[in-house]
Amino acid sequence: MKALVKDKAEPGLWLRDVPEPAVGPGEVLVRVLRTGICGTDLHIRSWDGWAQQAVRTPLVVGHEFVGDVVEVGRDVTEIAVGDRVSGEGHLVCGKCRNCLAGRRHLCRATVGLGVGRDGAFAEYLALPASNVWVHRVEVDVDVAAIFDPFGNAVHTALSFPLVGEDVLITGAGPIGLMAAAVAKHAGARHVVVTDVNEQRLALARKVGATVALNVAHTSIEDAQRELGLREGFDVGLEMSGNPEALRGMIANLTHGGKIAMLGLPSQEFAVDWARIVMSMITIKGIYGREMFETWYAMSVLLEGGLDLAPVITGRYSHLDFEAAFDDAARGHGGKVILDWAA
């Protein structure tokens, strides 16, 4: 089969012929239809310091996918050939305290699909049945391909109650855009999205942001005045990993405000801890998705009319993967999809 492989310990990815994966007793084999390009894939392609530490070559990359089940292992009973599926990209040990307590998203021994084991940028993918999500309700195939990052957005956005709340989202990348759509759909009063990229801010307006703010020109305080907020924002969703973004969020949160932080900083940085303490601000770190409560919420949100179509801005054949990765690396749009059925 064809697969995108990190074949050498140097920048680049290569489309190679590799063996079709074998299916174990508790696994399913998926014929991949679409995949989404993630920031993790860009790191692996560029072979930066993180990738050099995290990845052993050769490796089939990718973890965002949708496809059809073509074979099931002998112990699999709840998934059938022909099911349309996506998959949870975090494979857990099942034996640690958190796994045994049902908190699998907190497993300390998590292995990442397409990072710690062969991934989804291939014509076929073998995955444990316990990591498979069957789409019981029809979902657009491109949207189903990005359920993994959509889950990050849902996990972050729904960490705290949103009904009637004023929400500040820092970072209008694909996950920030999806979080804005979720927050508005879930009943937030105002959703303000900040970034410095006008193209992404335009996408934020398309998904329902009340205000899409270029912080290179306008301050968060100005947005508060425009909206008539007298006490600050109730909930912050930090999606950028940018130190100034978090500092600005903390400075503009109401007393007792809550922050869900998904953005991953590249290095340590200082924040105003006295303000956090005196304002009784809660900060919650987010990684991945709750298995599988977040997945259930994702499906229900889409069934209820949530529209993620504006977030997908690039579609390419897998044969044109170089152009697709270049598009994603420019950072001007939303999600980029690779078509493996073409």
UniProtKB/TrEMBL annotation:
Catalytic activity: L-threonine + NAD(+) = (2S)-2-amino-3-oxobutanoate + NADH + H(+)
Annotated metabolic or biological route of this protein: Amino-acid degradation; L-threonine degradation via oxydo-reductase pathway; glycine from L-threonine: step 1/2
Residues that bind Zn(2+) 1: 38, 63-64
Name under which the protein is recorded: L-threonine 3-dehydrogenase
Positions with a binding annotation for Zn(2+) 2: 93, 96, 99, 107
Positions of the Alcohol dehydrogenase-like C-terminal domain: 174-300
Residues where NAD(+) binds: 175, 195, 200, 262-264, 286-287
Residues in Alcohol dehydrogenase-like N-terminal domain copies: 24-133
Source organism, top-level taxon: Bacteria
Location relative to the cell: Cytoplasm
GO molecular function, one term: L-threonine 3-dehydrogenase activity
Annotated site residue numbers, Important for catalytic activity for the proton relay mechanism but does not participate directly in the coordination of zinc atom: 148
Cofactor note as given: Binds 2 Zn(2+) ions per subunit.
EC number: 1.1.1.103
Family membership noted in the UniProt record: Belongs to the zinc-containing alcohol dehydrogenase family.
Cofactor(s) this protein requires: Zn(2+)
Keywords: Cytoplasm, Metal-binding, NAD, Oxidoreductase, Zinc
Pfam families: ADH_N, ADH_zinc_N
Principal location: cytoplasm
Description of how the protein assembles with itself and partners: Homotetramer.
PROSITE patterns, per the entry: ADH_ZINC
Active site, UniProt feature: 40 (charge relay system), 43 (charge relay system)
Physiological role: Catalyzes the NAD(+)-dependent oxidation of L-threonine to 2-amino-3-ketobutyrate.
